[in-house]
């Protein structure tokens, strides 16, 4: 214990915390969206097949939104357009 702070990891590179946050986020969104799909299926549909489809759709929405947010946590926000480079002779 020399008192140096060389053991501290910069939050940008702390992969353990990012993975923990992503697993937690994925589990919560999967469960909440599945429950929402279940209630929606019970409310709007009579057939068991369409009710299961509503549950699966809700689970897919939850997984997709968690994947989007986790990819932003790991890679940062993607740029939609490349940076504008002025042509020669123009300012």
TrEMBL record:
Keyword field contains Transmembrane: yes
Membrane topology designation: Single-pass membrane protein
GO CC terms in record: MICOS complex
Domain of life of the organism encoding this protein: Eukaryota
Protein's job: Component of the MICOS complex, a large protein complex of the mitochondrial inner membrane that plays crucial roles in the maintenance of crista junctions, inner membrane architecture, and formation of contact sites to the outer membrane.
Localization (cell): Mitochondrion inner membrane
Protein name according to UniProt: MICOS complex subunit Mic10
Key words of the record: Membrane, Mitochondrion, Mitochondrion inner membrane, Transmembrane, Transmembrane helix
Pfam families, sorted: DUF543
Family: Belongs to the MICOS complex subunit Mic10 family.
Main localization (coarse): mitochondrion
InterPro entries named among the record's database cross-references: Mic10
Organism: Trapa incisa
């Amino acid at each position: 214990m020399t008192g140096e702070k060389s053991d501290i990891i910069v939050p940008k590179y702390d992969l353990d915390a990012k993975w923990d946050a992503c697993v937690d986020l994925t589990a919560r969104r999967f469960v909440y969206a599945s429950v929402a799909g279940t209630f929606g299926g019970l409310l709007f549909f009579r057939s068991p097949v369409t009710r299961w489809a509503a549950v699966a759709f809700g689970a897919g929405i939850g997984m997709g939104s968690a994947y989007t947010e986790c990819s932003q946590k790991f890679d940062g926000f993607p740029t939609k357009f490349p940076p504008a480079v002025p042509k020669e002779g123009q300012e």
